[in-house]
Amino acid sequence: MNELKLALLGFGNAGRAFAEMLLEKQEEIRAVYGRDVLVTAISTASRGTIVNSEGIDLEKALRDIETKGIFGDDTPGLCSLSSLEVVEKADCHVVIEMTPLNIFTGQPAISHIKKAFSLNRHVITANKGPIAWAFDELEKEAKERGLCFYYETTVMDGTPVFNLVEHTLKFCKVTEISGILNSTTNYILEELAKGKPYDEILKAGKELGFIEADPAMDIEGYDAAAKVTALLNVLMKAGITPEQVDRKGIEGITAEDIKNAAERGKVIKLLCRGQLTDNGVKASVKPVEVDREDMLAAVDSTTSVVSITTDLMGKLSVIEHAPEIQQTAYGIFGDMIRVLDAEK
Amino acid sequence: MNELKLALLGFGNAGRAFAEMLLEKQEEIRAVYGRDVLVTAISTASRGTIVNSEGIDLEKALRDIETKGIFGDDTPGLCSLSSLEVVEKADCHVVIEMTPLNIFTGQPAISHIKKAFSLNRHVITANKGPIAWAFDELEKEAKERGLCFYYETTVMDGTPVFNLVEHTLKFCKVTEISGILNSTTNYILEELAKGKPYDEILKAGKELGFIEADPAMDIEGYDAAAKVTALLNVLMKAGITPEQVDRKGIEGITAEDIKNAAERGKVIKLLCRGQLTDNGVKASVKPVEVDREDMLAAVDSTTSVVSITTDLMGKLSVIEHAPEIQQTAYGIFGDMIRVLDAEK
């Protein structure tokens, strides 16, 4: 049996949900593609690293993390290689980049991907850093080597956005993109609208898992800026970095602002936008007032939306309703299926 | 140059917009696929019929219709063949079915498509009748003969719905579909909400082109039932006909109902639904009250939405905002591009 071997860089919530989906769908993949999918490496920063060209026992790895928080001492191939060393040493066809994001540089994910390409390995990334900071360079390298480079998960989880344009809107030229892409700010704005004080919202949000320990990346719009940059680099060949996004967060929005807006029939949302202009693609992230009757007003909490305008198909919107971690896993899984398709 | 030859059955607004798009994109298609696309036949009921294996002069055909309403006497290949005879006699690789819909039988479109398959021709249909009334049979025939059978335009114009699931949600099993798919009822309900009397709405809607001469098909939910049947037959292998849809139109909705709903923060919409149950797929078309804050409430006038729930990706919605005839043309155009892809 011809196998497809994967190296997973990172094994957090998304990586583990992907491993579970893989276990669940293994038989079906075999039936459709005649191939077994093996995970031959998993690297983590604090839970241990495994390299095993025979294929890692995913059920045991998942159980170990759940019960002990780390991979057990009895795991064949347990080692202390770094993620970069794993890319070099693992016996794999595909490197799946899921390491923590550095939103200001895209590293070390970019280095992992470059290394993978240099060894002629396909790459799937769930990490938006590389798409926001180094897309053109990475895409060029993949193309020259005839390698797959897929990144659907980087914006709106597994919701078809990049694949939507590539596979279902052929010959359409994207002229404008907008969207609500950051759920933390969505949540905070809604809670402010209910009259809750900022400090309490942050405290409760952290307890509920909606808000990160350091929420500045979300609140100040850096996360949204990275996402809109990724969208524009891929779909409009913008060739920009997040630094070129005209960015304003929601840190200055008060309960009073929201109340005033409501009195005028408006709702405040952190909106990402990109438009084709005579001077290239202009990108922004800004709190804006939208009509209460507008579709955007209905996009609340963890729900997100992207609207794509093209020359031939006008404006379409795709909404992802209240996703769970499984939707992130599907983004990676769907990209893996595309690798299987490409190798058919 | 290897040519792709098309026979167009029907040359109404959508057919003419498709011909214009083809003229506009001909060069680009040649650059990408190395093929010329020729229209070798156009059949109409009242504007004349042309069969010309050298390729019809589309610019002249469009100009003739615009200036004279019929194809000119000087058109090479002008004849009086029926659509079915055109399918038989035209020198073509692809038959594009765009004849008027009979919503109660799917005919004569089904016969046109069967004839095309029997002659080993690919089929693109913009006519939802065949998908609602005979999908399984037609799909089977196409598969057995290795022919393309594409029908993206039949629901929400060129908006990716069928292609969305097939190309971007691989391995996902559809468990539920819902949507607002009929713009006439959307328009009538909105005008009723403004306090206008039913008769005036119909009169004004007909003048504006929003409402057909005989609006019963829309108002009584037949059009929506055909659309939801098409969706369910393709995406959930429902194997049903529109007669099996639990159908209720908006003919019983009064301005009073709408006002009462509004007082409870609700909006009335004609909602299509299909769900997987233990007894197969259950389909309905019914006026329902949705929350004013719901995304569905924001889908007004000619805007439409379909929500698709799958096992792996939860619920996604796709919205087509206020489409024009070009979006219908793109549905046909995109399907034609898929034929070019399939023949690569």
- By DSSP (H or I, 4+ residues per run), the number of helices of chain A equals 12
- As a whole number of angstroms, the C-alpha radius of gyration of chain A is 21 Å
Quick one: biggest sheet of chain A? 7 strands, mixed
Ends distance of chain A: 14 Å
Helix content range of chain A:
40-55%
- Low-pLDDT stretches of chain A are none
Shape of chain A: globular
- In what range is the share of β-strand residues of chain A? 15-25%
**How many E-type strands of chain A?**
13
Helix-strand sequence of chain A: EHEEHEHEHEHEHEHHHHEHEEEEH
3D architecture notes:
- The structure is a homodimer of 344-residue chains.
- In chain A, helix 3 (83-89) runs parallel beside helix 4 and helix 4 (109-118) runs parallel beside helix 5.
- In chain A, the strands form 2 sheets. The first copy, chain A, has a 7-stranded mixed sheet, with helices on both faces. In chain A, strands 9-11-10-8-12-13 form a 6-stranded mixed sheet.
- Chain A is 41% helix and 22% strand.
- The first copy, chain A, has helices at 13-33, 58-68, 83-89, 109-118, 128-145, 162-168, 183-193, 198-208, 216-219, 222-235, 255-263, 325-342, and strands spanning 3-9, 36-43, 49-51, 78-79, 94-97, 122-125, 149-150, 174-180, 246-247, 266-277, 280-291, 304-310, 314-320.
- In chain A, 49% of the residues are buried.
- The longest helix of chain A is centred in the N-terminal third of the chain and has 21 residues, at 13-33.
- In chain A, strand 5, helix 4 (109-118) and strand 6 (122-125) form a beta-alpha-beta unit.
- Chain A contains 12 helices and 13 strands.
- Chain A is globular, with a radius of gyration of 21 Å.
- Chain A is an alpha/beta fold and 344 residues long.
- Chain A starts with a strand and ends with a helix.
- Chain A binds chain B through residues 21, 25, 28-29, 158-160, 163-164, 167-172, 293-295, 297-299, 307, 312-324, 326-327, 330, 333-334, 337-338, and chain B through 21, 25, 28-29, 158-160, 163-164, 167-172, 293-295, 297-299, 307, 312-324, 326-327, 330, 333-334, 337-338.
